Amino acid sequence: MTTPAKSTWAGVLRTPVGAGAAGLLAAVLLLAVLAPLLWSDQASAVDTGRILEGPSGDHWMGTDGLGRDIFFRVLVATGLSVGLALLATAVGVGAGLLLGAAPMLLGRRAGRVVTAAVNIAVAFPGLLLALFFAVVFGVGATGAVLAIGFALAPAFARLAQTLVAKVSGLDYVAAARIAGLGRLRLLARHVLPNVAEPLVVNATIAAGAALLAFSGLSFLGLGVQAPLYDWGRLLGDGLSSLYVHPAAALAPGTAVVVAGLAFNLFGEAIAKGIGMRTTPLSPRPRARAAPVRRPVVTDEAKPVLAVEGLRVAFPGSTPVRGVGFTLRRGAAVGIVGESGSGKTLTALALAQLIEQPGEVSADRLDFLDRPLLDLPDRERKHLLGTSFAMVFQDPMTSFNPTQRIGRQLAEVSEQHGGLSRGQALERAIDRLQAVRVPAAARRAKQFPHEFSGGMRQRAMIGMGMMGAPALIVADEPTTALDVTVQRQVLRLLDSVRAHEDVALLLISHDITVVRRFCERVLVMYAGRIVEDLPAADLPARARHPYTRALLAAVPDMNTDREQPLAVIPGRPIDPAELPVGCAFATRCPLADEQCRSADPPLVPDEEGRRVACWHADAATGLPAVAEEVRVGE
Ligand SMILES: Nc1ncnc2c1ncn2[C@@H]1O[C@H](COP(=O)(O)OP(=O)(O)OP(=O)(O)O)[C@@H](O)[C@H]1O
């Protein structure tokens, strides 16, 4: 597990509460180690002549029923009290982590059973659980450690579950999955280090609670047994003579309160410190307050993205089969195709977001001239985090509903751009302004639900621009929006592309959108690119029967509204049941025996246009505008 960055600790220690709590905790821990070594003899020395004496110069806190010095006994008891409390906390955190990570390690079904059990256990009061386990494990220190440990476990399991689930959904964990890491390694290398901070903070606070619980069990006679003694036992012993000699109970009681406070205050101070963090935990590049500039310097003539033979395979199907294209700075390329043609999987594969059991392979997948599939995790994460922006279909699920928009945008620059919290927030406001969110400074403080759909999508684009993106992949970015807002968002993407010199890959099922905003169009069918042509060539020079059918299915102002809408006959192909020949053959008016027996290759012509059809030349005779083809006619 990684510990919080040095600067965070330094920050915590600089605050008065942090410094006080740290000093107090250090004293308690030091005493726990040294007191049993230094004063054990004085603490156990019996003096029958001075039984139950009150405080005096010889015995600052008086003596107990055997004339032993209470002050020394309280000091020596620090070792057992703190040691056992820490042990119980370790048991609780360990068991909690195991239970919390179970859904990730065991898979969905077994994970659900564990989660249900944890949910039930969390509902029981901790002290009740501790008493129950104390009875199960028997009276004594070991039993009490296990009892308190297991009583703490459900809360830690719940916390670990939430944290693990949150981190598991992050891009870099998905990326690590694609890199083929096993579940255990994924947990150890990518998940646990990222959930360590809140767990450590909670464990510190829980240690205070364990100390209290342990004293309680010992006080009740269920914990530490004679001749051993901890604060709880001393408290129990002292209580019997409370009216004669209150110091005998007050001294161990005060020790419990002070030590408990030390753990609690220190835990709270760290929590606050983490919240006030002014530098990212990792990685920490040298960049300072200056606006984030392009982190990867590339030869402008080189493509931003070069893809060859991209494949996405799942057990039993290969929904993306050999996709290849290049994208240059400032260029806009569109991918169109019906639902299920593999557009989204292509985008996810580019962003390294395909999850197991899916597998991505490619003859070439170079982003900013770096082979994405071969880069070390950390480098790939940084490269994608700074230069690759993704705008998803549903603006509602793109943001964390519990965090303010500005904070979510700022996080990107804190993580990857090396900006401080304040600087990152300033940049977030600037980016929100850039994507034309009105009153950006005020809006930055709002939660996602306070934004309209279009504004959320603009904020998402703004988030993509927190770094210096070289590529924006927008997957159906306007599907969830109404028509006027759709236009605004598309225009915004277009202006970002033009002004920031960013490459844009626009994915849509709507060929008219792609035609309008992109200079090149890739038409996908059954996981392959079947045609690649300049948008200006649509509709006249489209040579694939599928492209022409897509165009023909788009109604326009001249479409006769009395007639049923045109559709492409037949159904899209299931990637698990691909035919031997051309996948479009069953729906194609030009299909013949050759089409049914051999899949046509994607062939470029002298102008760089590519088409995969045995009858590409004949296809230009097919209708490509809506009123020319109607189902049922
Ligand atoms: N996790 C998965 N496991 C197996 N098959 C999948 C998985 N995800 C997607 N597919 C299949 O891959 C094919 C392509 O899916 P993809 O989401 O890329 O299509 P799309 O063209 O983006 O369609 P839409 O516009 O509906 O999102 C579909 O047939 C889909 O069923």
List keywords for this structure.
single chain; alpha/beta; MetI-like fold; Rossmann fold; eight-stranded mixed β-sheet; five-stranded antiparallel β-sheet; 21 helices; about 50% helix; disordered N terminus; binds adenosine-5'-triphosphate
Can you tell me about this structure?
This is Oligopeptide/dipeptide ABC transporter, ATP-binding protein. Residues 305-551 form the ABC transporter domain. One of its GO terms (cellular component) is plasma membrane. This protein is α/β, with parallel strands linked by helices and 633 residues long. The protein folds into 2 domains: 7-273, MetI-like fold (Orthogonal Bundle), CATH 1.10.3720; 303-402 and 447-539, P-loop containing nucleotide triphosphate hydrolases (Rossmann fold), CATH 3.40.50.300. Helix content is 50%, strand content 11%. Helix 3 packs across helix 6 (141-168), helix 4 (108-123) packs across helix 6 (141-168) and helix 16 runs parallel beside helix 17 (483-500). The chain is elongated. The chain starts with 5 loop residues before the first helix and ends in a 14-residue tail after the last helix. Mean pLDDT is 82; it is low at 1-5, 276-299 and 626-633.
